[in-house]
């Protein structure tokens, strides 16, 4: 008796998986950007960059980028952000210097150049934009920033 129940349960698994897959495939996904995936849309038609600096909402929030980075190259060989924000050039370019945390390796040792874990700036920093939220947000910043 036990063996037939186990065998029946095992036989039911593929049926449930296939029906779940078919249901997922039939669901309609609506676009958040207002266009097809392969249709190019210039960013300035969707929202505008915000001039000046936007206040941070919480301590340790990565600062937002107050300028366009549309043509910036950031890859394994080049990081155009560093041409202004690296500690050796920030003063002459009148740009904010990177935090010293960007020059620490994962063990806390100080480095002469930006740490590999902090090299890709846009993994934490994004351009400021006047864009509507994609989902409702009820976040309230802390009074103790």
TrEMBL record:
Subcellular compartments: Periplasm
Chain ranges passing through the membrane: none
Residues spanning the signal sequence: 1-24
Record carries keyword Metal-binding: yes
Pfam family for this entry, one: NapB
Main location: periplasm
Keyword tags: Electron transport, Heme, Iron, Metal-binding, Periplasm, Signal, Transport
Cross-referenced InterPro entries: Multihaem_cyt_sf (IPR036280), NapB (IPR005591)
Keyword Thylakoid appears in the UniProt entry: no
Quaternary structure, from the entry: Component of the periplasmic nitrate reductase NapAB complex composed of NapA and NapB.
Record function comment: Electron transfer subunit of the periplasmic nitrate reductase complex NapAB. Receives electrons from the membrane-anchored tetraheme c-type NapC protein and transfers these to NapA subunit, thus allowing electron flow between membrane and periplasm. Essential for periplasmic nitrate reduction with nitrate as the terminal electron acceptor.
UniProt similarity note: Belongs to the NapB family.
Stated name of the protein: Periplasmic nitrate reductase, electron transfer subunit
């Amino acid at each position: 008796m036990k063996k037939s129940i186990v065998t029946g349960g095992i036989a039911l698994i593929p049926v449930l998986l296939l029906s779940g897959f078919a249901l997922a495939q039939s669901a309609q996904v609506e676009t958040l950007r207002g266009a097809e995936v392969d249709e190019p849309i210039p960013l300035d038609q969707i929202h505008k960059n915000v001039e000046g600096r936007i206040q941070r909402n919480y301590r340790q929030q990565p600062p937002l980028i107050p300028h366009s980075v549309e043509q910036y190259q950031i890859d394994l060989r080049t990081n155009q952000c560093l041409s202004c924000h690296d500690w050796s050039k920030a003063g002459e370019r009148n740009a904010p210097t990177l935090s010293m945390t960007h020059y620490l390796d994962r063990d806390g040792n100080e480095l002469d150049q930006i740490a590999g874990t902090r090299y890709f700036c846009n993994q934490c920093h994004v351009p400021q934009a006047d864009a509507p939220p994609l989902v409702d947000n009820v976040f309230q910043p802390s009074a103790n920033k």
